[in-house]
TrEMBL record:
It holds the Pfam family RNA_pol_Rbc25. Its main location: nucleus. The lineage of its organism: Eukaryota, Cryptophyceae, Cryptomonadales, Hemiselmidaceae, Hemiselmis. This is RNA polymerase III subunit Rpc25 domain-containing protein. Belongs to the eukaryotic RPB7/RPC8 RNA polymerase subunit family. It comes from Hemiselmis andersenii (Cryptophyte alga). One of its GO terms (cellular component) is RNA polymerase III complex.
Length: 175
């Protein structure tokens, strides 16, 4: 559909993809595809957007081995599906959370969309008793709560920030 063409982009990439020794028994294209998905899916590429998935494998190049690494590094050219809505685009989402600071919206796979009060419709007020935003209009009040269903929102800014994954503490050994 037309909205999918705008919200998502196809981005061409080249990378040397490390294939761990445990994956070397698989067909080369399957092993590279698996490793691209592991490396890029659900990751933010600065100035590109949120990588959703591999779209197409274009070319598999030479395989390289390094003395200090047990992996085989395969040069690959491929395309990724990337979420990056354009400024001014109108999207459909659901209210994930509400606070006096604003609304957090979700489009399903992405839940980090924030709407501050100054971007809400005129007449929208925070109701401290109900703990949600209420849009007061001449046609009646509309309560903006998570069970309300879909909401439309316009993209006014797009910032994708790299977030460090939490480090994993080594498992404690039992004596």
């Amino acid at each position: 559909s037309r909205w999918m063409e705008r919200m998502f982009n196809i981005v061409r990439m080249k990378d040397a993809i490390p294939i761990p020794a445990i994956e070397l028994d698989k067909p080369r294209s399957v092993a590279v595809t698996n490793q691209i998905e592991l490396k890029y899916a659900n990751r933010v590429l600065i100035d590109v957007g949120l990588c959703v998935c591999l779209f197409e494998m274009i070319e598999l190049g030479d395989s390289l081995m390094y003395q200090s690494d047990s992996a085989v590094h395969v040069r690959a050219e491929f395309t990724l599906v990337v979420f990056r809505p354009f400024i001014g685009e109108v999207l459909t989402g659901k209210i994930a959370k509400s606070s006096p600071d604003g609304l957090w919206l979700s489009v399903g796979f992405f839940t980090d969309i924030f709407v501050p009060p100054h971007f809400m419709q005129d007449g929208t007020e925070w109701d401290e008793e109900l703990k949600l935003w209420v849009w007061k209009s001449e046609h009646g009040d509309a309560y903006l709560d998570p069970s309300h269903g879909d909401v439309l929102f316009r993209v006014t800014n797009s910032k994708f920030r790299q977030v460090k994954a939490p480090s994993r503490a080594p498992a404690a050994a039992e004596a």
